[in-house]
Amino acid sequence: MPTLSWINKRQVNVNENQEKIFVIGHKNPDTDSICSAIAYADIKNRTMQEKKYVPKRAGQINEETQYVLNYFGVQAPGYIGNIGTQVKDMDIRSARRWTKPCL
After folding, report:
1. For 43, what's the count of Cα atoms within 13 Å in the CB-facing half-sphere?
2. Which end of the chain is more exposed for a tag (fewer CB within 10 A), N or C?
């Protein structure tokens, strides 16, 4: 059975003050969504040192996905139940100003 040791055993220096960014697929995750979140978080962690990217999931893992994760020896991403956008997530400084139309 092959293992993805580069994901499971890689040492990452995590600073206590380092901002965490959660990488999530879609709400009802399939194998592609889960594996993409894991791979993207790993790539970002290898190339970006100022933030910590953490793979997460927004729904339950199906049997096929669990089989793939078990086959490659990869731990399933943690579950996040509330993934709604919050006001603090929006960058309102870059939004265009709305003006009243001239009548």
Report:
1. 7
2. C
44: alpha, beta or left, given left = phi > 0 and alpha = psi -120 to 50?
alpha
Tell me the two tokens of residue 90: 């929006």
Residues near 88 by beta carbon (within 8 Å), at least 6 away in sequence? none
**For the chain, the helix, strand and coil percentages under 3-state DSSP, each to the nearest 5:** 35, 15, 50
pLDDT in tens, 13-66: 556 678 899 999 888 899 999 999 999 999 999 998 889 999 999 999 999 999
Dihedral angle, C-alpha 82, 41, 19, 25, nearest 10 °: -20
